[in-house]
Amino acid sequence: MKTFHTVAIALSLGVLGLTGCSSGGGAGFGKAGKPAPGKDPDPFTLKLFTHQPMTADDFRLLIAEPVKKKYPYITVELLEHNATMLENAVASKEQIDLITIWNGNMNPNKGLGLFEDITPLAKSEQFDLTRFEPDALKTLRTLGDNGELYGLPYNMQFNALYYNKDLFDKFGAAYPQDGMTWDDVVQLAKRLTRIDGGIQYSGLGMDSWTRPVYPLSLIPVDAKTNAAAVNSEPYRKAFTLGKMIYSIPGNAPNFSTNEFIKERSKRCWPASTCSTCCPRRKG
Predict the structure, then answer these.
(1) Helix axes 182-192 and 233-246, enclosed angle (nearest 10)
(2) Which of 139, 224, 231, 240 counts the highest number of beta carbons within 10 A?
(3) Residue 114: which of 279, 257, 255, 226 has the closest Cα?
């Protein structure tokens, strides 16, 4: 089965240094936020708004503790995750210094004035962008009209086909194998979609109808013309695949993750997400 991935890189101070700050953030600093010669930096706090969810443990291990160890005067505070409240937070002028956000949600929020191209600052600070996966940076630069870079990748997740092993065992079916194509998986789903003991078992479900689109790296809207780009052969292939999956009798697209994880009435579930950490625009 064809898969895709984006890159995960731990958040670095190069990102943190791009944000505004309060709690005495200006005192004791010279140009470009660097400590003034001969002076200890005043402590300050950066607040991280989690539009893309992050657990408290991940925040502590990946961001708060590493930053505090290297820069004792910087405290990063995790704000409560609420993806629907970003617009309200901006309107109320809540302090937001960093944002974790899925790159797919960056364009819808560009109108909030949160993002600024960090390329000039990275250059002036000699911040090494080559440490990041080139394809991940390229993906982020497609979000700008002129190749602007609004954030840095910090997290990576792979596309994967998950399956309920106990259900395959129950019905004596062979497990999915590496190298399977979508056609192979659809045929497997047809064989395993059935009613047993009054329970409808669904052979294959997706977290989103867009899942077949992602491996093809398709974009629904042309960034230059703002015209829909879905009337094309690659999109036709993706939609045809979705129709094949959902046309299997008993495999209608009314699934939830609970069916796979808790109720265990679904055998296969392809899923993936990606995230980006973006500095808030200054001013």
Answers:
(1) 20
(2) 139
(3) 279
The single residue listed with the structure tokens 């009435």 is 265
Closest CA to 53 of 160, 195, 180, 155: 155
Question: Among residues of the chain, what percentage have pLDDT more than 90?
Answer: 18
Please answer whether residues 176 and 186 qualify as being in contact, where contact means their C-beta atoms are separated by less than 8 angstroms: no
Q: What DSSP line would sit under 147-179, residue for residue?
A: S----EEEE--B-EEEE-HHHHHHTTPPPP-TT
Both tokens of 130, joined, read 């080559």
How far is residue 238 from each of residues 131, 214, 268, measured CA to CA in Å?
Answer: 33, 9, 18
d(CA 45, CA 273): 29
DSSP type of residue 282: P
pTM attached to this predicted model = 0.59
Between 169 and 223, the more confident residue is 169
Distance CA 234, CA 212 (A): 10
Q: What token pair was written down for 272?
A: 């993936």
Written as six digits, the tokens of 172 are 């004596």
